[in-house]
C-alpha cells in the first residue's frame, strides 16, 4: 500500500502556492532548500500552481527518512521525486530543477514516462569531470577528490570556500553568505554522500533519452557548469533549448531573478504552457 499524502508532505516539507491550471514543481540544488526559490514564486503564483519541497536532509525535511543506501545515487533522489508527484497526484507538471536537480529530473522522467510535460534546467551538468577530448565538465578527477576530502576533514572550511565560488558576485557578499549558511545547516554526513553522488556521477548517456521539451538556463560565467557543458547538452538532448543568460555564477534565480523569470516566461509562452 502506498504511503498517505500526509507522510509525503511532512517528509518533504511540501508547500503549495497559486491556483493555476498547470503545475510548476520547483526542485532545489545541492546544499540549498526551497527558500532559494522565493524570488521566483511571486512571478508565477498568479498563473500557475506551484509546488515547493525539500529533499531529505535539506531545509525542513524529515531527516529521519534519509536512506544511506538509496540516497547514495541521484537515482535515489529521483525516486523521491517520482513518489512525491504521484502522492500529490500532479498532472501536466513542469519540472524546474536547479543544478544537480536537473539531472534528478532527467532520471525521474525516465523512471516514469509522462511524469513531466516539460523541464526547466537551471545550471545543469551531466558530468562535472573532464573526459578529453570530447567532453569538458570543468574539473579534473583530482579536483573533485580534493573537494570531497576537504568536506571530510573540515566541513565548515569547505562551505566557506565553495559558497563564493558558486555565487560569484563579490560585490554582493550577502548572496555567498546565505549559501554558506545553507551549506553549514546540512548534516555533514548526508552532505558528503550527496556530494559524492553528484560530483562523481556521469549522466551523459541519459541526455538522449529525454523526449520532452526542455529549457536549459546557463549562466555566462559559471564555475560549476562552463559554457561547454551547455553546448554538449544542446547537441545531445533532443528538444532542448539552451539559453545563455547575462547572469554570472551558478544561482541566477537568486542573483538575477528578473532575467531568469523573463526567459522562463518567454519559453512558457512559446510552448503554450
TrEMBL record:
<keyword id="KW-0378">Hydrolase</keyword>
<dbReference type="GO" id="GO:0016787">
    <property type="term" value="F:hydrolase activity"/>
</dbReference>
<comment type="similarity">
    <text>Belongs to the AB hydrolase superfamily.</text>
</comment>
<protein>
    <submittedName>
        <fullName>Alpha/beta hydrolase</fullName>
    </submittedName>
</protein>
<dbReference type="InterPro" id="IPR029058">
    <property type="entry name" value="AB_hydrolase_fold"/>
</dbReference>
<dbReference type="InterPro" id="IPR000073">
    <property type="entry name" value="AB_hydrolase_1"/>
</dbReference>
<dbReference type="Pfam" id="PF12697">
    <property type="entry name" value="Abhydrolase_6"/>
</dbReference>
<feature type="domain" description="AB hydrolase-1">
    <location>
        <begin position="24"/>
        <end position="262"/>
    </location>
</feature>
Amino acid at each position: 500500500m502506498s504511503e498517505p499524502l500526509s507522510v509525503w508532505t511532512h517528509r518533504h516539507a511540501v508547500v503549495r502556492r497559486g491556483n493555476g491550471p498547470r503545475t510548476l514543481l520547483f526542485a532545489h540544488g545541492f546544499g540549498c532548500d526551497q527558500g532559494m526559490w522565493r524570488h521566483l514564486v511571486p512571478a508565477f503564483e498568479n498563473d500557475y500552481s506551484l509546488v515547493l519541497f525539500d529533499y531529505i536532509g535539506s531545509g525542513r525535511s524529515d531527516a529521519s527518512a534519509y536512506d544511506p543506501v538509496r540516497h547514495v545515487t541521484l537515482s535515489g533522489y529521483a525516486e523521491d521525486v517520482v513518489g512525491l508527484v504521484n502522492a500529490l497526484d500532479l498532472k501536466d507538471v513542469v519540472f524546474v530543477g536547479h543544478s544537480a536537480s536537473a539531472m534528478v529530473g532527467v532520471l525521474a522522467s525516465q523512471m516514469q514516462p509522462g511524469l513531466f510535460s516539460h523541464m526547466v534546467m537551471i545550471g545543469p551538468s551531466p558530468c562535472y569531470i573532464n573526459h578529453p577530448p570530447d567532453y569538458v565538465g570543468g574539473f579534473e578527477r583530482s579536483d573533485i577528490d580534493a573537494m570531497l576530502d576537504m568536506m571530510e576533514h573540515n566541513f565548515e572550511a569547505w562551505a566557506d570556500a565553495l559558497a563564493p565560488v558558486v555565487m560569484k558576485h563579490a560585490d554582493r557578499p550577502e548572496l555567498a553568505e546565505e549559501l554558506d549558511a545553507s551549506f553549514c545547516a546540512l548534516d555533514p554526513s548526508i552532505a558528503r554522500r550527496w556530494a559524492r553522488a553528484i560530483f562523481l556521477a556521469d549522466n551523459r548517456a541519459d541526455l538522449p533519452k529525454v523526449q520532452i521539451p526542455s529549457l536549459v538556463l546557463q549562466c555566462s560565467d559559471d564555475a560549476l557548469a562552463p559554457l561547454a557543458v551547455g553546448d554538449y547538452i544542446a547537441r545531445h538532448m533532443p528538444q532542448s533549448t539552451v539559453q545563455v543568460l547575462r547572469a554570472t555564477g551558478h544561482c541566477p534565480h537568486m542573483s538575477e531573478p528578473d532575467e531568469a523569470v523573463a526567459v522562463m516566461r518567454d519559453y512558457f509562452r512559446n510552448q503554450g504552457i
